[in-house]
Amino acid sequence: MFEELNQINSCPKLFEFYTASELWTDEHISKQMLSFHLNEHIDVASRKVSFIDRSVDWMIRHFNIGVGTRIIDFGCGPGLYTIRLARHEAAVTGIDFSRRSIRYAQEAARKENLSVSYIWQNYLEFKTNERYNLVLMVMCDFCVLSPSQRKIMLRKFHNNLHPGGAVLLDVYSLAAFEKREKTALCEANLNNGFWSLNDYYGFQNTFKFEMEKVVLDKYTIIEADRTRTFYNWLQYFNPETIEREFTDCGFVIKDIYADVAGSQYYPESLEFAVVARKK
């Protein structure tokens, strides 16, 4: 028992494990995530609906979105952004790892008679010969990726864009990193049964990598017949570090905002958004 507890509370090497497939393809967890996406009043999985509406309105104006604008949304979830953009007659593609979310998005588009292309796939593995005017990755999805995975995505964005095309994404800031604390928690049915339909004991360990500005939330879920571990990595940025990554992959940062609704940037913001253009 001591060795098991020691393993549960141990910190792995930086980005040593990647468990997105287990998180997004689990039948019970994906159901919980979809319910968070669709809750209009909380900022979990997706932003509040009032923010999404404001964000899309700003995107329409800022990127001059209309008939023929080709947009691809990486990590589209249940289509909360793609549906709204398609209403403005943009040609929209959404990619997500959750089959449940993709099915919901497809049905939502069908009900409104909107032509949206949805792809059920890990976006790290996505390939296409199509070219787009705008790439989206919202809800700080970029932050869950390792440096090598981020480079894969930025090169993918570059290849997927028309010359002069834009990327819009948001990231967590160093101000948010400073607010995170190391923690260790154990509860029966941790997070109100989020992790399994069956009874379980859940351990949540939060580790901080101070030099690299990374936080790991490690969840160990112990049920009667199995034990699973999920690793949620979060990279935190300042404008200089995010610019270096974009510049290395052939982009120029054009604008920095406090969020993907175009709010004015300020250094104390817990997150910020960047607009980058393909050179």
Write a concise synopsis of the structure shown.
With 279 residues, this protein is an alpha/beta fold. It is built from ten helices and eleven strands. The chain is globular.
What can you see in these coordinates?
It is a single chain. This protein is of the alpha/beta class. The protein has two domains: 2-11 and 176-234; 27-172 and 237-278, Rossmann fold, CATH 3.40.50.150. Helix content is 33%, strand content 30%. The chain is built from ten helices and eleven strands. It has helices at 2-8, 20-25, 27-38, 49-62, 80-86, 99-111, 147-160, 174-179, 190-193, 239-248, and strands at residues 70-74, 91-96, 116-120, 132-137, 161-173, 183-188, 201-209, 214-222, 227-237, 251-257, 271-278. Strands 1, 2, 3, 4, 5, 6, 7, 8, 9, 10 and 11 form an eleven-stranded mixed sheet that branches. Helix 7 links the parallel strand 4 (132-137) and strand 5. Helix 4 (49-62) packs across helix 5 (80-86). The termini are far apart. 34% of the residues are buried. The mean pLDDT is 96.
The major β-sheet equals: 11 strands, mixed
Order of helices and strands: HHHHEHEHEEHEHEHEEEHEE
**CATH homologous superfamily annotation of the largest domain:** Vaccinia Virus protein VP39
Q: Please bin the fraction of helical residues.
A: 25-40%
End-to-end C-alpha gap: 56 Å
Low-confidence stretches: none
Proportion in β-strands:
25-35%
Number of helices: 10
The Cα radius of gyration reads 19 Å
The CATH topology of the largest domain is what?
Rossmann fold
